[in-house]
Amino acid sequence: MSVWKPLANLLSATIIAGVAGALALAPVAGISGVGIARTNETMQSNLSDLTYGDTPGVTTVTDATGQPMAWLYDQRRYEVGGEQISQHVKDAIVAIEDHRFYEHDGVDMQGTARAMLTNLLAGGVEQGASTLNQQYIKNYLLHIEAKTEEEQAAAVEQSIPRKLREMRLAADLDRDLSKDEILTGYLNLVPFGNRSYGIEAAARTYFGISAAELSVPQSALLAGMVQSSEGLNPYSNPEGATIRRDSVLRAMATHGYLTAEEADAYIAQPLGVLESPATLPNGCIAAGDRGFLCDYALTYLDSKGLSREQLHEGGYTITTTLDPQTQDAARAAVARNVDPMAAGVAEVMNVVEPGSDSRDILAMASSRNYGLNLENGETILPQPSSLVGNGAGSVFKIFTAAAAIDQGMGLETELAVPARYEARGLGTGGAENCPPNTYCVENAGAYQPRMTLREALAYSPNTTFIQLIEQVGVPAVVDMSVKLGLRSYEEAGTHDGERSIAEYMKAANLGSYTLGPTPVNPLELSNVGATIASGGRWCEPNPIAKVTDRAGQEVFLERPDCEDVIDQGVANALAVGMSDDLTIGTGSRAANVNGWSGQAAAKTGTTESNQSSAFLGFNSGFAAAPYIYNDGTTTSPLCTSPVRQCAGGDLFGGREPAESWFQTANLVPAALNGTLPSLDERYELGTTHAVLAEVVGLTEADARRTLEGAGYRVNVRSTEGTQPRGRVERAVPEGMLRPGGTVTLEISTGPPARPAPTAPTPTERGTRPTPTLPSLTQDDINDVADQIRDALGI
């Protein structure tokens, strides 16, 4: 009897047992009908994924012009079609891995039987018999399906059940796909070392060319590496890689793909790889100063349902809104005004494009370099797009002004400017010597005792705006700031981990809110400017122009609708009111120094003790809010020239923050050509104050009827004036003029009586002698009267 007969019987029994195990897969399933059904379902699912599924690829992040700035991947792979792969690679891989590939049906039964008998005799694994189909299956399960270490171990387990399952899938695969499709899929899938997966990535990594350009010896090297991509790395093991390449070349000659002479000629050539592998950076860390927007874009997409895991596998193209010219200008400006290596202080700046349908982020910059080297002043923290610093200071006065205009006040409304103001019910503390339960504020400089709202926006007296927030109400001001763009102020926990900033400020009724003492999101602050510039229309700040999948199809992103948050007339009035800041106000010095000749509205801001400062500026084409703050572990006053932490602060929003704005805007055509809206004349005196002008000159009854018809209560008092007696000289509101408020009519008593003429004094007459006049009798008078009658004929 042949020695192989008992072995054949043993092999048959082993295969039967293996089939049962392979079908069951898991001990708990056994070989029951349910277990077999589940196994069949799993295998069919694996086959479907193999046949129609996508393999992980590289996602590319670009700027608005399409220039790549970052790549995201778990496996660096570029899927290509069969026609984009050199035939030399196909020939080499078949020759060395499965020379019967075009003959078998997915499983080489002859080779499998030979290998199993040899392994049984040896008592271990001495020979393999995996076809390319089977290797395709194993690599797919290992590199694509397996997500845990246990699943990875199971994918390569040396067991007959796993092998039989692999064989079953390999045979099914051969029925579903053509040989070229299987070969193309295999070459797109397998690892080639140095973080490259698939033949296209391998060609780029080792030779700097595409897979279609690979020569015979290059193809032989890569085909040989499939056996052990790390062990046969031509950089770490050039001798081993050369021996393996030469083996492939000889196999190609053996199986008719080359002549022996051609193989020998190629064997004589060096490996010819690049001096070092052409690897691809992974993640936003490689994006340089674009890294801040890159990371924000990924966070934004995650919020829209496109997770980072999907992006690292999906092979997407993410086109951001970053404009390279604007980004370069912004980055240069903030790095010029605040040293990237400055201890504990940074400047950030976002540029947002106003618009009625979108709000694209054109730039997102920090004076800090984007990176992981903290000792070199680098950071990957989202500084430009998160709540940071001690606040934007007086920039917040625009929210109080907006609320006042919204309630009817005009830009020409006169406001009191006391040197000190003490308010009850608006919090406590503030200026020195403040009484209990009182909030006290003083102005930093000397001002005229009264000024218009427009002038107040330019000169920024603190006492005026504390009085104003007292009149319009803290809740109205806080709500206005949220509507215009500070949306994170409504997020729970932003104040103390539980309450939002908006909730706390309104509940405590803190008048200091108008002085901007709370951390601010610089991106949101820039968008406030864009909202005002867009006629009071808010849109979500947007870093994404579009996302396309590997097939070139655009991916839908759910975005919130834009909102008209305030009346366009109110927004336009606020913009016009803020424009004087650059001509007579706190931003005028920086505007002049930088030669600004365009139109813009602006507001400077600095917090108490100069711990942070900001400059918000905008027009129809450009909105930005440079912001300097303490970004280290300690908070300190900040000084200027150079910006630094110091004992006594002298940094103001009209200094480096404003400098950064103008230095950027001067290089951006949209900013230079931007315009401001015209002012609706109703907002000069105010939409409700106009009624006060209407009643001047009316009778008391007519004026009362007009005001009461408009919803106001009326008081009356008398005054001397230029109007005729009984007519309205002026109408004076008590506080803010709101419907239901009180207006006092001052009724004119007529002009003051003229004083009786007095005889001139000797001093007034001078020293000239008074002439002596003849005496006049009654007869003289009668004679003259008769002459007049005769002359007139009466």
Automatic annotation (TrEMBL):
The keyword rRNA-binding does not apply. GO terms for molecular function: penicillin binding; peptidoglycan glycosyltransferase activity; serine-type D-Ala-D-Ala carboxypeptidase activity. It catalyses: Preferential cleavage: (Ac)2-L-Lys-D-Ala-|-D-Ala. Also transpeptidation of peptidyl-alanyl moieties that are N-acyl substituents of D-alanine; [GlcNAc-(1->4)-Mur2Ac(oyl-L-Ala-gamma-D-Glu-L-Lys-D-Ala-D-Ala)](n)-di-trans,octa-cis-undecaprenyl diphosphate + beta-D-GlcNAc-(1->4)-Mur2Ac(oyl-L-Ala-gamma-D-Glu-L-Lys-D-Ala-D-Ala)-di-trans,octa-cis-undecaprenyl diphosphate = [GlcNAc-(1->4)-Mur2Ac(oyl-L-Ala-gamma-D-Glu-L-Lys-D-Ala-D-Ala)](n+1)-di-trans,octa-cis-undecaprenyl diphosphate + di-trans,octa-cis-undecaprenyl diphosphate + H(+). Residues 746-778 are annotated as: Disordered. The keyword Hydrolase applies. InterPro entries: Beta-lactam/transpept-like, Glyco_trans_51, Glycosyltr_51/Transpeptidase, Lysozyme-like_dom_sf, PASTA_dom, PBP_transglycosylase, PCN-bd_Tpept. Residues 686-749 form the PASTA domain. Residues 761-770 have a biased composition (Low complexity). Keywords: Carboxypeptidase, Cell shape, Cell wall biogenesis/degradation, Glycosyltransferase, Hydrolase, Multifunctional enzyme, Peptidoglycan synthesis, Protease, Transferase. One of its GO terms (cellular component) is outer membrane-bounded periplasmic space. One of its GO terms (biological process) is regulation of cell shape. In the C-terminal section; belongs to the transpeptidase family. In the N-terminal section; belongs to the glycosyltransferase 51 family. This is Penicillin-binding protein 2D. It comes from Corynebacterium comes. The gene is pbpG.
